[in-house]
């Protein structure tokens, strides 16, 4: 048995990744790294991926007789090659380019942290980054700063965006659904929120009046606040706080959902809650939502819908209706405008329409 990536709870209830060595003991350097990530507010999903990456590196070094504290760039190249070629246990297929990229990012971050904290020699981390030069806004030829960039990079082909066609979206909002499910569909379509953001939201985050100053909120009109908040499943907003307007159909669905909650005696603080059983009033889990989409909604609209597809569909709708790309970026909560620009790419429908119009 090799190194294991698992998790533990901090005193504040925050779940963070830990690495156990083959004897079941905490790996000191790795756990110092992941504790720092947890305290810095890094998403648990990210640290989980990095945890598995670090465990793979430590196991590989033991098998190859390499001291991980002195791992070289050539060693990491071999590690990457071996990982790319090895079939995964649960699929029998090699890892995807995306997983390889995430693994190398985790390994690089771990080694750079160890070097910065003087847990290993700085010479180990130095080859892992290369300088990049940027210019001033006025003179792009004048280099003014060095930007460290990961040297071991993996090309990840951009996958096409998949989302339902407009007629399926219209059907989704028209079909009969339970109040909670209907509200969630309207909320995701109206705001393009990430499903994790919706599941971690509180009731107090939703304001539906023209004037909300009595709630201590200066934002006029109906809206929902999205922020860095966790729930028991560690769902959270990936970016900083933002405010998303709500349209009338979403407000109507929300009012119907509140009536449904009152009928079931649900008064929990979370916006979307379990309605019965021992976990009543606790936030819905992503697994529950995904199951409802796959088993109920997908059959009703005859389309393999997932919650995240609504985000892609809404963002594409905004772009095709000439909403400024900077506004779309703010609505989506993207840290990098390049992430938003992918919605500018022509889809199959656009290409077909162009050909038919020219015929």
Characteristics:
single chain; 359 residues; mainly alpha; hpI Integrase, Chain A; three-stranded antiparallel sheet; two-stranded antiparallel ribbon; globular
Q: What is the gist of this entry?
A:
The chain is mostly helical and 359 residues long. The chain has 14 helices and 7 strands.
Describe this protein's structure.
The chain is mostly helical. It has 2 domains: 4-150, no CATH class; 166-350, Orthogonal Bundle (hpI Integrase, Chain A). It contains 14 helices and 7 strands. A 3-stranded antiparallel beta sheet has the order 5-6-7, with no helix packed on it. A two-stranded antiparallel sheet has the order 1-2. A two-stranded antiparallel ribbon has the order 3-4. Helix 2 (44-64) packs across helix 4 (97-116) and helix 7 runs antiparallel to helix 9 (248-263). It is globular and about 65 Å long. It starts with a strand and ends with a helix. The model is unreliable at 132-151 and 231-235 (pLDDT under 50).
């Amino acid at each position: 048995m090799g190194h294991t990536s698992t998790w533990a709870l901090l005193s504040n209830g925050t779940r963070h990744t830990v690495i156990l060595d083959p004897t079941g003991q905490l790996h000191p350097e790795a756990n110092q790294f992941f504790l720092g990530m947890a305290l810095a507010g890094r998403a648990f999903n990210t640290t989980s991926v990095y945890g598995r990456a670090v465990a793979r590196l430590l196991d590989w070094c033991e098998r190859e007789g390499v001291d991980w504290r002195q791992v070289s760039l050539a060693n990491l190249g071999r590690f990457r090659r071996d990982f790319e070629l090895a079939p995964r246990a649960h699929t029998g297929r090699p890892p995807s380019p995306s997983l390889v990229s995430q693994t190398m990012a985790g390994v690089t971050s771990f080694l750079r942290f160890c070097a910065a904290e003087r847990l290993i020699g700085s010479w180990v981390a130095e080859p892992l980054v290369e300088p990049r030069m940027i210019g001033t806004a006025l003179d792009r030829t004048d280099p003014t700063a060095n930007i460290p960039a990961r040297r071991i990079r993996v090309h990840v082909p951009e996958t096409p965006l998949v989302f339902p066609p407009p007629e399926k979206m219209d059907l989704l909002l028209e079909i009969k659904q339970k109040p909670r499910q209907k509200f969630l569909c309207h909320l995701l379509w109206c705001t393009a929120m990430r499903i994790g953001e919706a599941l971690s939201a509180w009731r107090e985050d939703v304001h539906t009046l023209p004037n909300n100053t009595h709630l201590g909120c200066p934002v006029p009109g109906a809206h929902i606040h999205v922020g860095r908040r966790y729930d028991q499943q560690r769902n959270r907003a990936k970016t900083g706080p933002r405010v998303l307007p709500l349209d009338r159909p979403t407000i109507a669905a929300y009012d119907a959902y509140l009536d449904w909650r009152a009928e079931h005696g649900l008064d929990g603080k979370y916006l979307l809650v379990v309605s019965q059983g021992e976990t009543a009033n606790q936030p819905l889990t992503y697994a529950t939502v995904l199951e409802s989409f796959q088993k109920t909604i997908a059959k009703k609209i005859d389309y393999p819908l997932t919650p995240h597809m609504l985000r892609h569909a809404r963002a594409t709708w905004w772009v095709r209706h000439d909403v400024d790309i900077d506004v779309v970026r703010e609505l989506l909560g993207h840290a990098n405008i390049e992430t938003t620009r992918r919605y500018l790419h022509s889809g199959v429908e656009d290409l077909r329409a162009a050909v038919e119009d020219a015929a």
